[in-house]
Design goal:
The chain has 9 helices and 9 strands. The protein is α/β, with parallel strands linked by helices. The chain has 2 domains: 170 residues, Rossmann fold (3-Layer(aba) Sandwich); 69 residues, Alpha-Beta Plaits. α2 packs parallel to α3 and α4 packs across α9. The radius of gyration is 19 Å and the shape is globular. It starts with a strand and ends with a helix. Bound molecules: flavin mononucleotide.
Length: 292
């Protein structure tokens, strides 16, 4: 048996989830390929060559990122093929569940049938920075949950996420983000006094939207998908990301080194978030305990 996961990850969270699935699939004898989704998809593998097909992405404005919609449009039509979805997001909001509606709609027209979808809360790469302690807790939770849910996928368990009232409308309205981000991308700036010209951002941009001239000048094209890879991984935090600059989060979280039991430092987000996260953790804890 073999599997493929077509995965897009802006800053690494979704990739981490996919790695956990790959590990568990392979522990169960399923050879697994993770195909990293980019804007140039000339080498797109044929899903018919795989017994299990999955798609993974981070939630962007309650939707699948535009690059995943492009993938769904480009992927080969099939006569009937079940698939699963893995998604990651910074908050455990129910409205995040509607993010796959359009993506699934495109695939269904091409003969694909949604069997299961799973959602993991991972540290925010935009809006606000989680504390290291919270980030570690999210990652530890994902590490415990993913193997259980990967085995569900292998067993062919049906797992659908409940949709909220007006969810379709909310997702539809927020699709404006995809156009807005292309425009916003043109207003990215790099602070010359901070930039060390390491060119990491230029090499890593999945939309090939960043060009750095011989003279060190940056040019930003119109293809930004707002994945935040450039600004998040900038070693000197030199980016300004247009109108979203106030929501910029810079620097990888120390997921493997900080302790989830370290004292909780003060943070900006309030009671609402805490309650939503508490629900997410308690459901996860229950599932993990039931698996033992
Ligand atoms: C442009 C943008 C929009 C986002 N929108 C949402 C959202 O609607 N809901 C949410 O919970 N998280 C949102 N996030 C946070 C990411 O989904 C989250 O940090 C995710 O784990 C990032 O995964 P990645 O590292 O694989 O890109 C957004 C992030 C970005 C960059």
């Amino acid at each position: 048996m073999n599997a493929i996961i077509y995965a897009f990850s802006g800053t690494g969270n979704t990739s981490r989830i996919c790695s956990l699935y790959k590990q568990e699939f392979e522990r169960n004898g399923v050879q697994t390929t993770i195909y990293p989704v980019r804007t140039d998809m000339d080498d797109l593998p044929d899903p018919s060559a795989f017994d299990l097909v999955g798609f993974a992405y981070p939630i962007h404005a309650f939707n699948a990122p535009s690059i995943m919609l492009d993938l769904a449009k480009k992927i080969k039509a099939v006569s009937r093929k079940e698939f699963f979805i893995l998604k990651s997001s910074g908050e455990p909001l129910k409205v995040n569940n509607v993010s796959s509606l359009r993506f699934v709609g495109i695939l269904e027209k091409k003969g694909y049938v949604l069997k299961s979808e799973y959602h993991y809360v991972m540290p925010y790469n935009m809006i606000f920075r989680h504390t290291d302690r919270e980030a570690v807790r999210m990652w530890e939770t994902a590490k415990a949950l993913c193997p259980i849910e990967a085995r569900e996928v292998l067993r062919g368990v049906e797992h659908k996420l409940p949709h909220v009232c007006f969810g379709r409308l909310i997702a539809w309205l927020l699709r404006i983000e995809q156009i807005a981000m292309r425009i916003n991308g043109r207003f990215f700036r790099v602070k010359a006094d901070k930039c060390i010209l390491c060119r990491k951002c230029e090499k890593a941009c999945p939309a090939k939207n960043i060009r750095i001239g011989e003279d060190g000048r940056f040019a930003f094209g119109k293809n930004c998908i707002m994945c935040a890879r450039c600004s998040f991984h900038c070693p000197t935090d030199a980016f300004k990301i247009g109108i979203l600059n106030g929501w910029r989060v810079n620097g990888a979280y120390p997921l493997e080194s900080a302790s989830a039991s370290a004292p909780e430092p003060k943070h900006r987000h309030g009671w609402y978030c805490k309650r939503a996260y508490a629900r997410y953790y308690s459901k996860a804890k229950e599932k993990i305990a039931n698996d033992r």
